[in-house]
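Researcher: Going back to the complex we discussed earlier. I've cleaned up the inputs and rechecked each line, so this should be the final set. Can you rerun the prediction on the complete assembly and write out the structure?
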Amino acid sequence: MSYKLPKYIPVERVEIDTIGVEERVARLNTRSIKKESKVEALKMALTMMDLTTLEGKDSEGKVKQLCYKAAHLHDVFPGLPTVAAICVYPTMVATAKKALGNAKINVAAVSTAFPSGQGPMSVKLDDTKFAVDNGADEIDMVISRGKFLAGEYSFVFDEIAAIKEACGKAHLKVILETGELETLDNVRLASDIAIAAGGDFIKTSTGKVQPAATLPVTLVMLEAIRDHYYKTGIKIGMKPAGGIAKSKLALQYLVMVKETLGIDWLNNELFRFGASSLANDVLMQLVKEQTGVYQSLDYFSKD
Amino acid sequence: MAKKKTDTTTIEPLKFSGAWDYAPAPESTGHIKLEKRYGHFIDGKFVEPLSKKYFATYSPSTEEKLADVADGNAADVDAAVKAARKAYNGEWGKMPAAERGKYIYRIARLMQERSRELAVIESMDGGKPIRESRDVDVPLACAHFFYYAGWADKLDYVSPGRKPKSLGVAGQIIPWNFPLLMAAWKIAPALAAGNTVVLKPAETTPLTALKLAEIIRDAGLPAGVVNIVTGAGATGAAIVNHPGVDKVAFTGSTDVGKIIQKAIAGTNKKLTLELGGKAANIIFEDAALDQAVEGIVNGIFFNQGHVCCAGSRLFVQESVADEVIRKLKDRMQTLVVGDPLDKNTDIGAINSKEQLATINKYLKIGVNEGAEIYQPKCSVPSKGYWCKPTLFLNASQSHRIVQEEIFGPVLAVQTFRTIDEVIEKANNTPYGLSAGVWTDKGSKIFKVTQKLRAGVVWANTYNKFDPTSPFGGYKESGFGREGGLHGLLPYLKFD
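Model: Rerun complete. Updated structure for the full complex:
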């Protein structure tokens, strides 16, 4: 299959007013999600989760455990969905793929010299191809933030387009690492470049840089996705990642998605949470909604 | 994953409902204490009206009666003015300024303590969403008392070198759109400056003013310093025409403002009027458009559009008009219309049957004038008074919906091409209360705002209020300023 590289066309800059964004976020956060709409949203959040382990000390044993957790979130609570994907380093893709077996859970691999992106193009392409060859369904790449901040947008664009080609059938999520982009104007520009270059998803962060995902950054990215939809009819996905550990925050993200992009984005084809500890907090809330009491975290398996 | 290329002309609009709809999240009302019947608050206590008459106040969202309140006549007003005069000549007038400040601080703190109760009653009696009464009306009302409390012993610095003196008895008449907040805007500076007060809340929304009377009583404010008389237009006229009143402050319609100005012509009464408006909200092509859309929504749909400074005329530069309107329509679909006490409600009930009739009259006028009407698909409760958020696209400067104040959630949209054109059109109105300008260019903000004939001009935001900032209008929007140092001037005279 041949993929024609898109040609870089300078992306039009879109003005972002930071204070206005923060006010909109504050207003969205006043939405009160109770009772059945809360339970529905918590279950939805589980289906959208990319259960993640991205550490130097990751081993096959750790990844296998996480895969089991992904398919069996909390077996004492019947009727729970599975998560959307497991997110690991490329070297763990084969292990994860095997451990997941027939479960309908994707394997996502971070690539392109994750998390810094400071590697030569050849390494980034090999990194990606290795993950895809091992069976990765999704590739989470990082952009070259140094080049972006230096104004070399065509470099950033070409790199994304090349990785997209290397992905083949695998879906491409483009990590902007918004914590290093500093301004919301930059977040918007990077989003537009990533979408134009062929990203299927745009993703906030690696989780290795603070701040990771924030609601204002996510709102700006969702607005980029919306504007792209109205220009082309194409629906790009969104993945906030890093720092989303509590159910309440997850609900705030879902409210934002619903009121910015609408209900078509409320599924794991178009929205994901990148998180390692969110799942257990959501499970705890679901159990509480059913029984009326909070259980200790000791009742929820770590991996 | 679905990734389909579509012809841009056939792109479906985004869908905002039909899945994961929010469950009701009503604020509880169990903690609210309302009497069956309220008298006037005169000389430090609630008293039966001399008129012997009462009228009912209703919830505009349920049409249920909330309480009976006294219908004040000239004799009631006379008793209130006499109590105010006695307090002015007595304890209050002789009190050291710093002590006066302490009382005002105490009112502010008690209001904060009872803020939840005040917010719920405000939403029940007036129909505004609890999100607004809780996050805007009540905190701002408290802030006004806190701010002016600080001025009480610093009046010598209002106009350095000149010795300020209080006026005496202030007669104050406030509207139904921000019942508690307007009471705070009126009472706080009057007290800080050393005056005493006779205040009349609007007949459809008297309850939070009466709750404020309870707080003032509990604060131990000397009897007669603040008197609250309820009633309709005739009660207001009795205050305006009472010879014992030294100053009249009115917020309300331009028509009534004109009557008041005629009535006090030839007297020594000082007057401030804060009247209607038809503000221009101007969106330039270089604005941050998504945030500007939010500003349009805040400008016109805040408090059901019952806001004198509402951004009711939208001017969008032609080059971005289609995009802005599309974004605005999408945003309007996410506005929740309904029960004011639900925490997710964005647009509550129209304040009264009469006001709903007025708004509906203008909706008809707009359609007949040929403007294109847009309302999102949303359901409204069967009982109560409701109006969906409304756009009139392709409106013209000569349309009545562009020229006249509607005082509802109705936005007239026009496009423009150049800066000069939009300034000319924005100023082409009998009103001059407020305006909004949206552009990412700082130089353009200064150029445009200097030429807009409006008392308040917001840049890249809308409907922002702060007790330190003066507020008031030009032309038929009135005169005099409330808020800030300027807000003290109407309550002081200088040697």
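Model: Worth noting: Chain B touches chain A through 41 residues (CB under 8 Å).
Researcher: Good, that matches what I expected from the previous run.
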